[in-house]
Design goal:
The complex is a heterodimer of chains A (429) and B (209). Chain A is of the alpha/beta class and 429 residues long. Chain A has 19 helices and 8 strands. Chain A folds into 3 domains: 213 residues, 3-Layer(aba) Sandwich (Rossmann fold), CATH 3.40.50; 84 residues, Roll (Ubiquitin-like (UB roll)), CATH 3.10.20; 96 residues, de novo design (two linked rop proteins) (Up-down Bundle). Chain A is 41% helix and 11% strand. In chain A, the strands form 2 sheets. Chain A has a 4-stranded parallel β-sheet with strand order 3-2-1-4, sandwiched between helices. In chain A, strands 6-5-8-7 form a 4-stranded mixed β-sheet, with no helix packed on it. In chain A, helix 4 packs across helix 7 and helix 15 packs antiparallel against helix 16. The two termini of chain A are 35 Å apart. The relative contact order of chain A is 0.12. Chain B folds into 2 domains: 59 residues, Orthogonal Bundle (Arc Repressor Mutant, subunit A); 127 residues, Glutaredoxin (3-Layer(aba) Sandwich). In chain B, the strands form 2 sheets. Chain B has a 5-stranded mixed β-sheet with strand order 2-3-1-4-5. In chain B, strands 6-7 form a two-stranded antiparallel ribbon. In chain B, helix 2 runs antiparallel to helix 3 and helix 6 runs parallel beside helix 7. Chain B is globular, with a radius of gyration of 18 Å. The chains are: A alpha/beta (429), B alpha+beta (209).
Chain lengths: 429, 209
């Protein structure tokens, strides 16, 4: 489990991994130079397809296939989704702060392969330091001739603009993000048309996550097959997991998928704080339904967790120990989605607020006997059938995401929820 | 109405022109220009929104519809220091609510309120991507990780007493922080000069860039 693609440089050179000097000194931009000098665009796309890498933003869509959908007419755009906002997730922040040139090289190689001359990086507004780091790195790369006109004498040109968001989780949804760059409210668009056909300024656009693109230099340097050989089938490559909550060693860890949850939480994470009992954990960000100790010895794979009605999402693992009040934890997540709903779709706008209000009255000791049924009924109106993957009555998945904690606490901790409704102290040890 | 350009300092006018020239379509400059405009009045004032509208060539109400969508564009003036306490799930699990109470108590104001002297505004915010260093706090969007209720109180007192012209994350982390999400690497000497994210092209960064 020692394969490191994304974090090797920052671990070996903690004092200056973000500088262009260190990046060049450790072989950086060599792949870009070679690519623009002697590669065919379609060969790069083929390498990414062969790597089997799936998008690291949350949806897990195969990146090479996405690239293959890009319509041919110019101009085309590449948009980097650095709007990392899924509660529990802080991996892209580390990649931006500690190795921004790795991302820039990925952007440049991807742009060459896609025939793009203009890229935008949309960073959430609260990430001021990552934005400064990336901006500085863009300027350094420009001065050194790895961005701008006629990169490395190849005739290929690329400009990169760093654009700050302003506090809206929904802008992580790719079409909301495109609206936001266009200077509009961050409201998701109906699909189709998909961005690859009609995206930014109604032009063909590829939207990729920071971590996804940061893998591109390695994939192109070592070949898609080498990447595909890492980890289990359909969960190829290494992956950043953000570990937080009641673990002894929170942090970002680059792991090869296929290990067990026990290895991640008790091995890498050092176990539960104060050696408490594990109660439950969120496997893939606030949008994902929770898992419980009986799942500890199952493998972490993108497709495998679907069997348990959940997903790896953004790779954010939030651990809760035996002292956790699950109603209050669910409330924190539901309140998040209610706050972040853009308001376009009624089931989400009204439903998330209802879920929040019902949980608040339970927490205030005013729960009603019918409240569990009501929580599930409201959830069912947002996401019919409460199936996995979620069905939708909305334009985007934000509303259905708010049902994840409701499904989880009523499925695994019904006694505790009922106890809270009956006004008793939550049944915590 | 006075000419919008007249109300920008020459430096900000230059920055605004640069931002406008950056994008294939001018309207994309709304958000950067709202940040630039917020610098002068610590919020996206009506006057600022009118300026932005005229620079881009759309109506003030179109700018307002964008401005009010995003929580970081403040519709009312905020204090010199905007203290944002995260209470989303990972911070919630590790005492974010207690940190918020401590900040609120020390400042003497609640969520979305500002002290009478205009120094400190307090808010609780949703996830700011510092979950491995929970609970997390930002001052003018400069981050401090691993904050306890006691350290949060000390932070508010420090801001009130020392009134730093530039807010530096590394300095505050040293004084008031604990567990970090990851190794931050070498200290950075650029920071925020206003309750606006400190970013060079938007004219909002201070210190040694």
């Amino acid at each position: 489990m020692t394969t490191q693609i994304l974090t090797a440089r920052m671990e070996a050179h903690p004092s200056d991994s973000h500088t262009i000097e260190r990046y060049l000194d450790t072989g950086g931009y060599a792949t870009l130079k070679k690519t623009v000098a002697s590669s065919k665009r379609e060969d790069i796309v083929e390498q990414v397809k062969a790597s089997n890498i799936r998008g690291r933003g949350g949806a897990g869509f195969p990146m090479g296939m996405k690239w293959g959908f890009l319509a041919a007419s110019d101009p085309k755009y590449l948009v980097v989704n650095a709007d990392e906002s899924e509660p529990g997730t802080f991996k892209d922040r580390q990649l931006l702060e500690r190795d921004p040139h790795q991302l820039i090289e990925g952007i440049a190689i991807a742009s060459f392969a896609l025939g793009v001359n203009r890229a935008f990086v949309y960073i959430r507004g609260e990430y001021s330091k990552p934005a400064r780091r990336l901006q500085r790195a863009v300027e350094e790369a420009h001065e050194a001739g790895y961005l701008g006109e006629n990169i490395a004498g190849s005739g290929f040109s690329l400009d990169v603009t760093v654009h700050l968001g302003a506090g809206a989780y929904i802008c992580g949804e790719e079409t909301a993000l495109l609206n936001s760059i266009e200077g509009r409210r961050g409201e998701p668009r109906l699909k189709p048309p998909f961005p690859a056909v009609e995206g930014l300024y109604a032009r063909p656009t590829i939207v990729n996550n920071v971590e996804s693109l940061s893998n591109v230099p390695w994939i192109v340097a070592n070949g898609g097959e080498a990447y595909a050989a890492i980890g289990p089938e359909r969960s190829a490559g290494t992956r950043m997991f953000s570990l937080s909550g009641h673990v002894k060693k929170p942090g970002n860890y680059e792991i090869v998928m296929g290990m067990s949850w026990r290895d991640l939480i008790y091995g890498i994470g050092g176990g539960i704080r104060d050696d408490n009992e594990l109660k439950t954990w969120i496997p893939g960000g606030a949008s994902s339904p929770w898992l419980i100790p009986e799942h500890l010895d199952t493998a972490i794979t993108i497709d495998g967790v679907v069997e348990f009605g959940t997903m790896l999402g953004s790779g954010a693992v939030v651990v809760m120990d035996e002292t956790t009040d699950v109603v209050a934890a669910a409330h924190s997540i539901v309140r998040f989605f209610a706050h972040e709903s853009c308001g376009q779709c009624t089931p989400c706008r009204e439903g998330t607020k209802w879920l929040q209000d019902i949980l608040e009255r339970i927490m205030a000791g005013n729960g009603r006997p019918e409240d569990v049924d009501l929580l599930l009924d409201v959830s069912d109106n947002i996401s019919p059938g409460l199936v996995w993957p979620p069905a939708m009555t909305t334009i985007c998945p934000l509303g259905p995401s708010a049902t994840a904690p409701i499904i989880s606490i009523t499925k695994y901790f019904l006694d505790e929820v009922n106890a809270a409704i009956e006004g008793r102290q939550a049944a915590v040890v | 109405m006075t000419s919008p350009i007249a109300n920008w300092s020459p430096e900000n006018q230059e920055r605004a022109n640069k931002i406008l020239a950056t994008y294939p379509e001018k309207r994309s400059a709304i958000m950067p220009l709202l940040y630039l405009a917020s610098l002068e009045h610590n919020h996206a004032s009506n006057e600022a929104m009118c300026q932005v509208a005229e620079l881009i060539g759309i109506t003030p109400s179109q700018v307002r519809s964008v401005s009010t969508f995003y929580t970081m564009f403040k519709q009312e003036p905020v204090g010199k220091y905007l203290v944002s306490v995260c209470t989303s799930i990972s911070c919630h699990l590790l005492g974010g609510n207690e940190v918020f109470d401590s900040v609120s108590d020390a400042a003497g104001v609640g969520h979305n309120q500002t002290t009478e002297d205009g120094q400190i505004s307090v808010e609780h915010v949703e996830c700011i991507g510092a979950c491995g260093g929970a609970p997390a706090v930002q001052v003018n969007y400069e981050l401090i990780e691993g904050v306890t209720p006691d350290k949060a109180r000390a932070l508010v007192e420090w801001l009130t007493q020392t009134t730093p012209a530039v807010v530096l994350a590394d300095e505050m982390q040293q004084l008031f922080g604990g567990q970090r999400s990851f190794d931050w690497g070498p200290a950075e000497h650029a920071g925020a000069i206003a309750p606006v994210p400190a970013f060079g092209p938007y004219g909002s960064a201070g210190g040694d860039q």
